[in-house]
Write a structure and sequence with these properties.
2 copies of one chain form a homodimer. With 226 residues, chain A is α+β, with helices and mostly antiparallel strands. The first copy, chain A, contains 10 helices and 4 strands, in the order βαβαββαααααααα. In chain A, strand 1, helix 1 and strand 2 form a beta-alpha-beta unit. Chains A, B: InterPro entries: Glutathione-S-Trfase_C-like, Glutathione-S-Trfase_C_sf, Glutathione_S-Trfase, Glutathione_S-Trfase_N, GST_C, Thioredoxin-like_sf.
């Protein structure tokens, strides 16, 4: 039981989701948790700011230990509960390097997705340019092709760091699922599609599936033409 | 000796510099290394692409193990050479959480610095807006104030994760030094200034100081009014 842990989270946020997957994989059940609404600006509420002064979700606390950055929280949980639940760290030097490499490349993927999907959210109307959005889309296509290539290399997969599920999957799967939710074509990106299919029914992932995606299984098609 | 390691790097790049600091701290001397020029586009050369298909520096190889993402490389080096040189991982749960938290907050600092310093580099002329650059500057000031506050908390410091030098310092110091190089005022940001002074003469940092900063000790003043 993990009654000394508190997680404040938002539905569909890859940073929140990855912490929830890590908690499940490490067998940390029964933590205090609260689903908050980004739309209602609840991530800027006093409740969040007390744990996370940046006013961002996730906000995560283990006893008196606060660790809000989602990568940090996942790594912290693996390190503190190493012998509990699923071992999430690759063992050999080569696998460990690959795990770390993919984890951090995942940030580039997430950034480039966000540059396309949140363009109108992040850029005020008077500053928007079709040419900028087009360039962001091209950068995202290039990035998606890097991931396709990584997954189809001889001996690669089925997981991101090789034969075992690892922190790389905990951290990057929500980003890939997010791309699929927004219409990523599994015909144009078959290796990403296959990876998504392999993981989507994994118990830790199913148990933490974004509730508003369950309520409304049809996502948007922002990315379908990429 | 670390003759089975190769590092291709660029001068003044925080991602390259942090890997060099990690190598020094772990006592890994004598690695093969080559200084390349971003200006001459040498990071897009065949030599780099063979190790790092993204055409970015650092490009780093240990035997057959490739790990180019700079955070990944630093964490890999600590993990593979744990008992050698300076221990770079905090021990207690609280220190470990703080170390990880600061490491990842460091990415936000680096991003916001880049959004100001490289604005004209990243945004084509026809898409530039004074309002956007102004917003980026305000976001950077807010971020710098977060770091000031972190460093002045009761019991904080002198290092980023507390009493010991750790991966958080290896990773974030180059970003802070970069801000100082571009004119950050130690009057307006005294805790960042103090932190910079504490670390700038540390042997691992002095030994890896960007050579073109040594040649030309006077930096630019882009950030002096922030």
């Amino acid at each position: 039981m993990a009654k000394d842990m508190t997680l404040l989270w938002g539905s569909g946020s890859p940073p929140c989701w990855r912490v929830m997957i890590a908690l499940e994989e490490k067998g940390l059940k029964g933590y205090k948790q609260k689903l908050l609404s980004f739309e209602k600006q609840e991530h800027k509420s006093k409740e969040v700011l007390e744990i996370n002064p940046r006013g961002q979700l996730p906000a995560f606390k283990h006893g008196n230990v606060v660790v809000n950055e989602s990568y940090a929280a996942c790594m912290y949980l693996e390190s503190q509960f190493r012998s509990q639940g699923t071992p999430l760290e690759a063992q050999s030097a080569g696998e460990q390097a690959l795990m770390l490499q993919r984890m951090f490349e995942g940030q580039t993927l997430q950034q480039k997705l966000s540059d396309v999907n949140y363009y109108t959210w992040h850029v005020p109307e008077a500053e928007r340019h079709d040419s900028a959005l087009q360039r962001n889309k091209e950068a995202l296509v290039t990035e998606l092709q890097v991931w396709e290539k990584n997954l189809q290399q001889a001996g690669a997969g089925p997981y991101l760091a090789g034969k075992s599920f690892s922190l790389a999957d905990v951290i990057v799967f929500p980003v890939i699922a997010y791309a699929v939710r927004f219409g990523l074509s599994s015909e144009r990106y078959p290796f990403l599609g296959k990876y998504y299919s392999l993981l989507k029914d994994r118990p830790s992932i199913k148990a933490t599936w974004p509730p508003h995606w369950l309520e409304n299984p049809q996502g948007m098609d922002t990315l379908k033409d990429l």
